[in-house]
Please model this.
Amino acid sequence: MRPSLLRGLLLCAAFVIARAGVAGPLDEPIKPLQGTPKLDPARVEIGRKLFHDPRLSANGKLACAGCHDLAKGGVDGRFRSVGFDGQTVGINTPTVLNSGLNFKQFWNGRAESLEAQIEAVVANPVEMGSKWEDVVTWIAKDKDYKDAFGKAYKDGVTKRNIVDAIATFERSLVTPSRFDRYLLGDQLAISGEEKAGYAKFKQYGCIACHQGQNIGGNMFQTFGVMGNYFQARGNPTDADLGRFGVTKRDGDKHVFKVPSLRNIALTAPYFHDGSAATLEDAVEVMFRYQLGRTAPAEDKELIVKFLKTLTGEKGAW
Amino acid sequence: MRKFGLIQIGALIGVLALVLAFLYAKTRSYDAAAYFENEALLRQLRQVDAQWELDGLRSKMGVNTHYDPLTDPLLTLERLQREFDEKGAEAGAGTDGGASKARDALHQTIAQKTDLVEQFKSHNSILRNSLAFISIAADDVQRRVSDALASRHGDSAALATVALETNRVLLDLLKYNLSSADDRAAAIRADLERIDERGRGLPREVAASVEIFLAHAHTILREHKTVGDLLSAISAVPAGARIDDLSDRLNKWQQEATAQAQEYRSYLLGFSAVLIVLIVYFAYRLIGSYAEIARVNDELKQTNEGLEEKVTARTAELSKALDDLKESEAQLIQNEKMSSLGQMVAGVAHEINTPLGYVKGNLEIVDSRMEQIEQVEGLCSDVAHMLSTEGAKAADFRERIQTVFDAANAIRKLGLAKELKDLVKDGVYGLGQIDDIVANLRSFSRLDRAANSKFDLHEGINSTLMIAHNLLKNKGEVRREFGDIPRVLCSPSQINQVILNLVTNAAQALDERGVITITTARHDEERVRIEVADTGHGIPADVLPKIFDPFFTTKDVGKGTGLGLAIVRKIIDQHGGTIDVRSEVGKGTHFTIVLPIGRAAVESREDVEFLEQQLQAA
Model:
């Protein structure tokens, strides 16, 4: 073959291959993240400072980042986090990453918004143990905060604005992953096995609850649909009652907010009780008590592989 | 119109302005924009709600593969509700309890719906999973059964039955899923029961797979009903009705508010009309008053002009009346003067008559004596003639001269010359008397002198007494007590008139034996005093104050004019002097005149002219 023709063919092939990699966005039950939302950078900055400021706690020892460490996937990796004065909290700490996409906050969905969650945590006697009047007072006294608030907010330092700043910062913590790129059309973003894992994820019905933009976080579900998880585990606590704690309805016993699977590879241990130490264990529990099905080990492995694609690629946070 | 003070007017205007402002504010209180905003919010709510239900169905049917469409509306619904609450409160639509109850009802229904949707999501995902899996589970059973049958594990009949029934139940389940008749569910449950029983005796793997199949079959039965009920409940939630209710309220409120605004607008219009009417009325009154003022002004002007004319006319009338009056006065004065003049003239005539009589007599005697003188003269001329003619005989001549001597002797013997001298002397004396009288008259009238002059009062008094001599003849004596007085600047004729009047009155008051005393003296530095006193019958006390009044007289009708003393007073007044009287009935009357020395009489032209006229006429 003539050299120029060969070059041309190769070029065409390369082009086709390249193009094959970039297809149109897929229409899947999981929706991709599309960059960071539009937020006021000044407010995000104040929120970032506050998020890392231990003076939000009563004794000035614990910041939000203490339990929601951004370097550790938005959690502290502990079975149970420890509050400002050394008390352990009653439930496993969920991640702050992408938490703005959750339809409610806390495992039992008692906070309707990030703002409500922030208000509750700062005042929680176990977690940060502060009084909001005190928080507002010392922030107002801090010159840097006062100036920053004055610039970013019309009415300066108020409880509402403090909460808003932190929430705005949290909303900025979205973590697009390889899988999002795949969903947006980049066929080469995940491997064949990971794609197969996603197919299994769908096939086995994990997708029934872990769906939407946050791959979960948009509905409640009983923990132990096809089997009694708590009976099997034993040692029931109040936290195990889930939504019942909010609605006081029997039907809501053991009902929890379906957690997001984004960055799941980083946020062990899993479940509200932190009982699954690894993804494999978690998948195992899910199959038995939620899906009521058996699956071969390979399928479960593929699913785990898929789950690992949900980790955010290094971003602004 | 009652007079309003400034404060009252201000208060009235203030009240009117307040009412106007109030009415205007009421018309503005309805904000149409708020209504439309609220209406839009409700419309959005309706849409979101409808879409939400639709998405529910789609999730049930599997068209929606994830629950974000069922979750996202939550935020929207909350926001819309919050906005509606805020805007509703602003627009005042929520002021009545009914509206806030309606809003609460809406909140409740949406909360209720949200809860149902949450449950739906949970149960629907379970249902869908089981539905998706049930065929596989059934397949699994078949496989296990065929494996068992192939390896001769277990009761093949039972195995076969189980496999068969499993398939049948699967079909029933799938059919049930599409229809959802409750009796079907019962039948399927019965079948499942049987399979469960049969499954107990089967080999473990088969039993396990059957167990799984049954679990999901039950799940389907349970969840299908639950999901169906939830969907019915969701569609039964009257969120739409509540929204419509709110919309109706909003409409009603809006209509009411519009109607009220209209009402207030019409009040405003009415009020404005009333104000305009008031303004027009007041303007009309104002114009009226101005017109009135203008008219009155005009009238005033006209009256003024008329007045001028009237005044002029009146003045002319008055002048004429005054003239008439003066003329009457003058007439009366003239009459009085006439009478006094008459008296005086009578007296004067008498006075003149006397010397005139004997002068005339004397001249007649002279005339008669002339005869003898003429005789002698005749004889002399005869002699003369005889002398002159030749031939005259000495005897005749001697005869004739003898006759002349005889005639002359006769005259001499008569003393004719002396007699004639005496007669002439008498006559001249008599003429002298007449001369005096005339001179007195002249002096009295002072025609040849100016009205005011420095006058010797004594001269005047003497002249006057001379003129009044006739009157005073039989009335006792007249005493003069003249003091040392200078000449007085006055109207001599008038002063003479005064003296004459007083003297005449005094004479009239006297009987045969009386005394009139005229005294002059220096009263002080600047004044002289003249006193005329008589010892007549006096003036009674009640009459005394009136004697100077014009037309007042105690004389009989026709005898006196009553003006004498009035004129006297007037003359004295004009001279700036005073006149006083003292009188005692039976004793006498005493007049005292004080005249300034240096002051001239205020000229009274009429008097002067009148006197001139009368004297000329006389």
About this structure: The radius of gyration of chain B is 80 Å. Chain B touches chain A at residues 65-68, 70-71, 74, 78, 115, 118-119, 121-122, 125-126, 128-130, 132-133, 137, 212, 215-216, 219 (CB under 8 Å). The CA atoms of residues 479 and 517 of chain B lie 5 Å apart.
